Task: structure prediction
Amino acid sequence: MKVNHSETQQTIACPHCGHHLHITLDASNGDQDFFEECPNCCHDIHINLHLDDLDRTLDVNILSDDEQVY
Ligand SMILES: [Zn+2]
Result:
């Protein structure tokens, strides 16, 4: 998804249970890589934020490659 504001709210879907949650993104910090805890299933959601300097847009990637095997 693409957004044009420096700080914006996004709705993402949890890759583990599909629960939708709102996150606040701040593009002024550049690229970010962080985890949000899903309020529904309590799993960590790996969120990768990439700031494109050319057209001032944000790329938001929801990653699910961090699942732990028990
Ligand atoms: Zn979840």
